[in-house]
Design brief:
Layout: H1 2-13, H2 19-24, E1 43-46, H3 56-71, E2 75-78, H4 92-103, H5 126-138, E3 142-145, H6 149-161, H7 177-185, E4 191-194, E5 202-204, E6 208-210, H8 218-222, E7 230-232, H9 240-250, E8 255-259, H10 266-276, E9 282-286, E10 289-290, H11 306-312, H12 317-325, H13 340-346, E11 356-357, H14 360-377, H15 380-396, H16 402-406, H17 411-421, H18 429-435, H19 455-468, H20 478-487, H21 509-533, H22 541-572, H23 580-586
Parallel strand pairs: 1-2, 8-9, 10-11
Antiparallel strand pairs: 3-4, 4-7, 5-6
The structure holds glutamic acid (GLU).
């Protein structure tokens, strides 16, 4: 109840932040951030409630805590906050473990791995919380409250209808210890409340001095009410606030990084630390994630659990981690592409204030960047990409690919260089197969070759393409094709770049040759891409030829030649006879590759 009212207050008025701090919120990063990186090893924790699965916001919280611990040589703990048993989702805890491990955020202490301050599941620590709550009763920082729900309800209604703010009148705070003990022993239902007169301000690592100084109004003298939060519920179980504070203290947590939605609760937690006479950890609240319209991320706008990214979208753990790290954290590197290991070396508390807009274009940019990194370094990630792409091809292709395409290679051997050559565009396996579908069919459907080049240039393109096919099997590789294409001199073929734009004229013959050759090469790449893949974007031409193999490349170039020849025949009927012989002559030396 109290937790909710604090949240509402924060959302409406942002009043937990002092005015001078609010004024400085417009600055994008904490100015003293560097000095805020702890000089001693930080013990951090991620404390999820198994009432749902890990989503983008909670992954980022876990990541920042993990990185702070790694950067400072400290420890990262996992604690399951399952005090709200009614809302616990069966299987959620197991999924949390799997998702964190998938993301690479292995905890040093916690469930499944143990540690010196366990158990790490709050439902197994009830007696610890009760003991601590009773300690607070004995030193007058807490009291048993026997008020019935009916009384509290009537009281709340009365205040609400009188337009008064909610609160508790501390009816039970004055009961003597003896009476309180006696009523409890007789079995009367009670909760334990913390006696709080002031909620202390605190120094947030991100937002600076934060909290709300309460000043007593005139009304307070006549009708004072209190926030006295409940620590132990009538069923004997602790509230989140008590369990969270007790555990952070007993588990020796030094730094708590959590979402700003918990910021209104922190003064109450500070009050609890004071009541116990414990030193609180340092708190840093990370900003809310919002969509491009400034709306809080929700299930409707993609703050969905990790399996959406991992299983449905095929996002790499490295990309999602990299993406999450950039949500509110700023760095001074030139590139935004980081592996988890790199982040562990460079993380600091330069965390942006104010809402963080989540732009998913960035996720896909990072995904392609990581695909290229995997392609360059090899390793298990690239094997996994090859496996996924191969299994999609196997399950979707109705053709027997072995003869025309694989040519003695296994599907994995065929797919691996394709992924390496087109990693720059890899989003996920499904999209990769669709984008590169021309590599997985022997019946390519080409639209007619579209060019504005004049017919003599087109015939020179055929000649150049055919020349590339003369490379023997033993030299059929990327390097040979690259050298052959770049050393092919197409300058003499170009009298004009297109029917409409004449070749640029210059007095310097060498310059003119270079310009013409460049124009020819551009057209040649365009032609070869059409001939080899039907014009689909994908790997470079030398790579495409190497992957398709000699037989299939020659086959496709021949088919393309036939297609343009029949187009040309169509056009020839409309052009003067005198230009026809030239084209015929060009192809005589090509033997089996010559047009029929
Ligand atoms: N159990 C809380 C949650 O689910 C943890 C809040 C905190 O980190 O203190 O988010």
């Amino acid at each position: 109840m109290i937790r909710r009212s604090y949240r509402g207050l924060f959302a409406r008025h942002n009043s937990w932040v002092c005015a001078s701090c609010r004024a400085s919120f417009s600055s994008s990063a904490a100015s003293t951030a560097k000095s805020k990186l702890p000089q001693t090893p930080a013990r951090t924790r991620f404390a999820p409630s198994p009432t749902g699965y890990l989503h983008l916001g909670s992954l980022r919280t876990a990541l920042f805590n993990y990185l702070l611990a790694r950067r400072t040589g400290g420890q990262f703990l996992l604690r399951i906050e399952d005090t709200d048993q009614k809302r616990t989702i069966p299987g959620a805890e197991q999924r949390l473990y799997e998702d964190l491990q998938w993301a690479g955020l292995q905890w040093d202490e916690g469930p499944t791995v143990g540690g010196p301050y366990g158990p790490y599941r709050q439902s197994e620590r009830t007696s610890i919380y009760r003991k601590h709550a009773h300690e607070l009763i004995s030193n007058d920082h807490a009291y048993r409250c026997f008020c019935t729900p009916e009384r509290l309800d009537t009281f709340a209604r009365h205040r609400s209808s009188a337009g008064l703010p909610p609160g508790y009148d501390r009816k039970c705070a004055d009961l003597s210890h003896a009476e309180s003990e006696e009523r409890a022993e007789k079995g009367e239902a009670y909760v334990i409340r913390l006696k709080v007169d002031d909620y202390p301000m605190f120094n947030d690592l991100v937002y600076g001095k934060t909290g709300q100084k309460r000043s007593n109004s005139k009304l307070d003298f006549i009708d004072r009410v209190y926030d006295d939060p409940i620590l132990i519920k009538s069923d004997g179980h602790p509230t989140y606030h008590l369990a969270n504070v007790v555990d952070d203290h007993l588990m020796k947590i030094t730094h708590v990084i959590r979402g700003t939605e918990w910021m209104p609760s922190t003064p109450m937690h500070m009050a609890l630390y004071n009541a116990f006479n414990w030193t609180p950890p340092s708190f840093g609240h990370v900003p809310l994630l919002v969509d491009k319209n400034g709306q809080k991320l929700s299930k409707r706008n993609a703050d969905i659990d990790l399996s959406f990214f991992k299983d449905k979208q095929g996002v790499f753990a490295a990309s999602l981690i990299n993406f999450s790290a950039l949500l509110g954290w700023s760095h001074s590197q030139k590139s935004d592409v980081f592996s988890l290991e790199e982040l562990e070396q460079m993380f600091n508390l330069k965390i942006t204030r104010g809402n963080t807009v989540v732009a998913f274009e960035k996720l896909w940019f990072l995904q392609k960047a990581h695909a290229q990194r995997f392609a360059a370094t090899g390793g298990p990630q690239i094997d996994e990409m090859v496996n996924k792409v191969s299994s999609i091809v196997e399950s979707t292709s109705s053709e027997d690919l072995s003869t025309p395409l694989l040519q003695g290679r296994t599907l994995h051997e065929y797919v691996a260089p394709l992924i390496k050559a087109d990693a720059k565009s890899y989003t996920n396996a499904e999209e990769f197969v669709a984008r590169n579908s021309s590599f997985f069919t022997s019946t390519l459907n080409r639209a007619p070759y579209e060019t504005s080049a004049e017919p003599s240039l087109v015939s020179a393109l055929h000649t150049a393409a055919a020349a590339l096919c003369l490379v023997p099997e033993s030299h059929w590789d990327v390097e040979s094709h690259r050298i052959n294409i770049s050393s092919y001199d197409g300058s003499s073929a170009v009298t004009s770049i297109s029917n409409t734009s004449p070749a640029p004229t210059t007095d310097d013959p060498e310059k003119a040759r270079v310009v013409a050759d460049k124009a020819f090469k551009k057209e040649l790449y365009h032609y070869l891409r059409w001939a080899l893949t039907g014009g689909a974007p994908g790997p470079g031409i030398p790579e495409t030829m190497a992957i398709l193999g000699r037989a299939e490349s020659i086959n496709r170039i021949q088919q393309a030649r036939k297609l343009t020849a029949s187009n040309a025949a169509e056009k020839r009927r409309r052009v003067p006879r005198s230009t026809q012989g030239e084209e015929e002559r060009d192809f005589k030396w090509m033997g089996s590759l010559a047009p029929q």
